[in-house]
Amino acid sequence: MVLKRKKARAVRLARRSARRTVRGLDDRLPLLEAAKAGLRKAFPDHWAFLLGEIALYSLVVLLLTGTYLTFFFEPSMREVTYEGSYGPLSGLRVSSAYASTLRISFDVRGGLLIRQMHHWAALVFVAAIGVHMLRVFLTGAFRKPREANWLVGVTMLLLALVEGFAGYSLPDDLLSGTGLRTAQGIMLSLPVVGTYASLLVFGGEFPGQDIVPRLYPVHILLVPGLLVALVSLHLMLVVHLKHTQWAVPGSSGRNVLGKPFFPQYMAKSAGLLFMVGGLFGVLGALAQINPVWAYGPYRPDVVSIGSQPDWYVGFLEGALRLMPGFETRLWGHTLMWNPLVAGIVLPGLLFAGLYAYPFFERWITPGGGEQHLCDRPRHRPARTALGVAVLAGYAVLLLAGAQDVIAFVFEVPLPALTWALRCALVVGPPASFWLTRRICLALQHQEAEELESGQPTDEVRQSVEGGYHPAHRPVARSERYVRTVHSLPAPVRVPPPARGWTDRLRRGLSRWYYRDQPQSPLDGAQRRRVAAVLAGPDAAGAGDAGDAGERSSTGY
Known about the structure:
Order of helices and strands: HHEHEEHHHHHHEHHHEEHHHHEEHEHHE
CATH topology of one domain: Cytochrome Bc1 Complex, Chain C
CATH architecture of one domain: Up-down Bundle
CATH class of one domain: Mainly Alpha
Strand order of the largest sheet: 1-4
Structural class: mainly alpha
């Protein structure tokens, strides 16, 4: 009994001390209020919203495995004699970076597993960011007030490419050295400053002795720090701006339907973390990647056939291979158009377009209110077609990056394959744009017909006159909500006469972007009801916004 009383007294004292500690901290920091709001935050329950988390957890694996690798990697290009466990290279003069990579692979316990997990996580990290941004683009989740978050995402994609290339170049093997040589050729193509840029980066003539020691802090410190900061900013903006969601019964521009962060969403997210980590563990153990011992150390006078970079820079490799090789002599300087256009102009235009697109679409779209419901891709035919066209061009360039392997495996003449890929690069994106746009419009027209006459069934009915007609059933309420709760932007109306060429350009682009949109089968009252559903917290008089620049449709 005495022991029980002492135990109960200790428990009471511990509880009292914990309450005082929590109360003292809450008086100085709003912990309880923030925790209560954060733990009950609603997250929409849809698989598409987990794509960003895959990128986040890939970054976690990258940081953990990368920290382990830094204990053993030596970022130096000083020549040493390799005396490790890999017999075929024993006694060969190699750089310290290459020798330490071999030591990690063959002599450090678990080193090869961690190294391959790190490489696989890097590939998936870039892919997850790209697919996540594609989802954001196709669903319009970049619109007001999330333009800043889109810019953060584009910057993260750019940094991920830089981070991947820097890490890919550190082992100083033959393949990574070939990639650095390609990068140096692109630098040299810069007008006027190309030679100076190359000398500055490489510390002298290529390859020099400084590039690996310079890439190392960029790879392990500078870019990871920026990525962690941008990820934190991205998550803060998601919490502050609230999550976008699909149009389902009960959802609107003023609420978020979903599961609370704790415990439901946290349990799902933790399960995804373990799945991602386990997948990388399996890949690292069973799927060989980047076997630097098979490539050998880098030599500037050696290039192996079939040299391919990691997939995320494969489109640049393909552009370099497809771009015709010609040059121009101007004012005493030689312009090499092949590496300049393919390696600098093309990625520059790509990322400039990504940064500018939210503001471009807002410029040609009437109305400027907040948008919190995701678009179905078919409801934005031009935007969806534009995304597919870019993907088609990217796919052609990615294939072109492996044109020598394709020609060898399928026994196709390399010049013929090159010209075929050039034609595909010219014809493919416009054809993809036209076809995708027509498919989206056809799907919209089909859904409009089904809303009016119902969905066809497998029954056939005979009329009193003896004719046969397919039976139809009304569209379900939830499906009707999904199909009709969305806005149909009309082209921008610029009152004549236009104030200048910018107004005429805006009107022309808007008319081209939103042309051929099907008419809504709903009446004015239903349009006003959906306008109220779509209106964000910033809207005033949302119930009367149905005809103010946009044609809205509803059916619930």
